[in-house]
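User: Hi! I'm working on a homework problem where we have to compare a predicted structure to a textbook description. Could you give me the structure for the chain below?
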Amino acid sequence: MGKRDPTTPPDPSGGWSAGVREVSGAVVVPHERPGRDLYCGVFTGEGKYMPWAATWQREALITHAPDFVTDPAETLEGEWLWGGVLYGHFGHFLVETAARLWAVPRLRERLSGVLFVEKYSSEQAGLPAYKTEYFQLLVGDLPLRILRVPTRVAHLHVPGQGFGLGRISKGTRVFRRFIAEHFARDVEPEGPENLFITRSQLALDREGFVGEAILDDRMARAGYAVFCPEKHDLGTQVARYRAARRIVGMDGSAFHLFGLVANRDQNVGVILRRQKGRSRAMRWQIESFAGRTPHVIDTLKKNSDWVMGRKALIHDFDMDRIGAQMKVAGLIAPGVDWGPLSPAEEALVAEELALQAAR
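Assistant: Happy to help. Predicted structure tokens:
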């Protein structure tokens, strides 16, 4: 593979991540201060920073060269894989933390485990169950280790970034093949043919909105099973996503997990709850992994968008158009009763707003 300028964003066509670089006596330096830009990464034993190990997000570097540490606090023997940055947020964790694990199958017999640095120091008490399960679905029982102090590693394998946010959300060929062949391969499809992924149980400060349960009720009456993913383990979520023939939901992190197992026989509708550009990476992922473009149900009223601290309302959407666009997409039957908010639904919104105001 020819040389590539390390300041050039990763190429989602497959070339950028096709290689694994090996370093003897590598020094891994975790970041010391939180923020969007992280000063962490991998150095050769001679102190040369490795841009190959850096993390890209939306065509920009978010990890930058820290100061080299000549006398690391710890030493690790054996052969390890560089996993990159371990994220806290569910969606970022699903997409960006997995970005280099595509190299595990070819190296498994040689590896002592996978090394990460944290974006935030949030895993002191151990990984939450969903993260442990995700790694199990990806790489089985391969040990994982979070480095919190500068560490010299006897032998480090550094794969290129194969997944992430931005154009790389399409995944490189080698990453998509890894997911198709290895991710959750023992999880069989199980569940209804029509699945609505709800966000109605999420708190308003986690990007929920007042009146969202009205969508749950309408989709149930249209023949969909309403599925609340955060109430189930990842294996159950994957089983439901594999079984469904029609899947609809508000754009959000759940679609990143669905995107890993999506296939071209599924009819997918994404109802935008944010301006269209903010869900582009998720939609690119589904299209690339499934080989089929999802239907975008875009009825968000002009200048409406979720903003931290503001109570978004179901009135920010054109409910009549949501139904009309889903009928055109074949997601709900032409005869389904779907129009503007009814007086009873308006009363439910008013009641929910009153409860929120009283808190």
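For your comparison, note the following. The chain is about 25% helix and 20% strand. The longest helix spans residues 343-358. Good luck with the assignment!
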